[in-house]
Amino acid sequence: MAARRRANAKIGITGLGQRQEIGPGVFINNFYRGCTPGFIRTEEGVILVDTPLIPEQAEDWRAQIEEECPDLPFLYVFNTDHHRGHALGNQYFMPSRVIAHERAHKEMAGYTENFKERVYNSFKREPEIQHQLTHIEIVPPHITFTDSAKLLYGGREVHLIFLGGHTPATSIAWLPDERICFAGDVVWVDQHPYMAQADTLQWIEALRYVRKLNPEQIVPGHGPVCEPDVTHKVEEYIQFMRERVRDYYREGKTKNETKSGLVGEMVEWYPVPPERKAKIESQIKSGLNRVYREIQREEELAAAQARGIVLSHGLDDDDDEDDQD
User: Is 86 helix (H, G, I), strand (E, B) or coil?
Assistant: First the structure.
């Protein structure tokens, strides 16, 4: 099965940029690095969705929010995930209450000085950014939820819903009146999804859940606002990787042979800037590694069930924060 190249659309650039109002009182900025943050203006205060990774960008985002909502307090920061690109900027939006899935709290509570050092060192080729990361303060969630939560403030209704798939903490924010979905890293636009901590079957179900909401606009974890049809492309990518890994596994290929053999096929799915090719290939390999283990476990379970043997089917996490923005 041959890979199919996807659209060559360019995604956001690293910079400051200006906020974009995508609905009445609902704003995003897709120029920041690490995620596409947003905020929702209510009569009682502001609800933020994710925070920029780079301090200069986080400070700029706060200034833009305060310019738009000069007399309103920050009510909540909702982190769609625990990854640094979505949550490391929390410190720049205090005082407010951070809310996220309970697994995000578990992960972020474990961010040690070693984690901070890894983040700092990951920007060694960008000293102007590295210098900004000398005083990292981790602000884990103050409030957590398991399956869902609902925020009702100032005439706004915001549903926080755990979906998983990308990580065991991945959650979305759904605005039913505005029909806007902040999908976090469930949805990626014209770029390779990060899959090192994925549960791919759960991810496929998450994409289908987002489609069933029938949103008019989706704010992905990375990139510009999109429509629900983008979820099909992400699902195709995941399904293709699963099918090709299963092909290799059934041919008796090892995990390393599978990664080496398939990285070239997968890289063709989305445009990759030359300067990021090595990093993207490494990211794809980490995803292939994860999917290989999933397929291996599925095949072992199927074989065991055929023999009447019961096996557990859990997977350990493979997360590597150094590979994500």
Answer: helix
Residue 169 sits at φ, ψ, to 5 deg, of -120, -5
224: containing domain: 20-235
Whole-model pTM? 0.90
3-state SS of 223-276 is CCCECCCHHHHHHHHHHHHHHHHHHHHHCCCCHHHHHHHHHHHHHCCCCCCHHH
Same domain, 91 and 230: yes
Instruction: Check whether residue 219 and residue 266 sit in a common domain.
Output: no
Q: Do 41 and 146 reside in the same domain of the chain?
A: yes
Cis link prior to 55 (omega < 30° from 0)? no
Burial of 53 (0-12, 13-18, 19+ CB in 10 A): buried
**182 Cβ contact list (under 8 Å, min separation 6):** 38, 49, 50, 78, 80, 172, 173, 174, 175, 219
125 in a structural domain: yes
Q: What pLDDT, in 10s, does the model give residues 142-192?
A: 999 999 999 999 989 999 999 999 999 999 999 999 999 999 999 999 999
Any domain includes 6: no
Amino acid at 61: W
Per-residue pLDDT tens over the stretch 67-93: 999 999 999 999 999 999 999 999 999
Q: Of 235, 251, 274, which residue is a domain's last?
A: 235
* Of residues 136, 135, 182, 175, the one with CA closest to residue 156: 175
The CATH number given to whatever domain includes residue 96 is 3.60.15.10
115 and 243 housed in the same domain: no
